[in-house]
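Open question from group meeting: does this chain pack into something compact, or does most of it stay loose? Before anyone orders reagents, we agreed to write out a predicted structure and look at it together. Recording both the input and the output here so the notebook holds the full record.
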Amino acid sequence: MRKYIRFALIVLLSTLFISQARAQKKDNCDFFDTVVNNHNQIFPYSGIPSAIELALKQCKAVDLNFYKLQNDWQNKTDGSFSDFDKKKLYGVTFYQKFKLPRNGNFPLDSLFQSIDNELKLGRKVIIALRVENGWPIFVVHKRAPNGEFVSYSKFGSNTLIIRNTKEIVKKSNGTEIMTYSTGL
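Structure tokens returned:
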């Protein structure tokens, strides 16, 4: 009988310890991580609406199962940020910025300052990054201690993380971004 009671006590204490550890992990989890981990880019060329959906989910304007924008877009190959410029979707208005020639005159400092300002306000920034042979769409999530920006994208259910966003933008001589505001 003592062995049974000791075993039951060990199982009970282990269960409580594991439950507390899981609860603590959940409490410390960044909501954006939850959004990213539960989001998919459902078409190969739906990067722009996928990033818009991530922003909408981050703002809690839509639920985590929202994929209407990607379903409407599907594999549209001639789309751009301008398709969403000044569009109000579910209480969130999006703005295309830095649609300029990518060359030595691109205002990189101004671009990076704009991204910093948005992050300080608690908003993410949608950005096109030249990676290998294309320009996939990412969401700038945060500024790292070294000053670089950390950006996320989805490829199907796989999460892509870029930790050298500024470096990529500099090598590309600039890029455009999308910001957003909530409310009015």
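Observations to bring back to the group:
The two ends are 68 Å apart (CA to CA).
DSSP finds six helices and seven strands in the chain.
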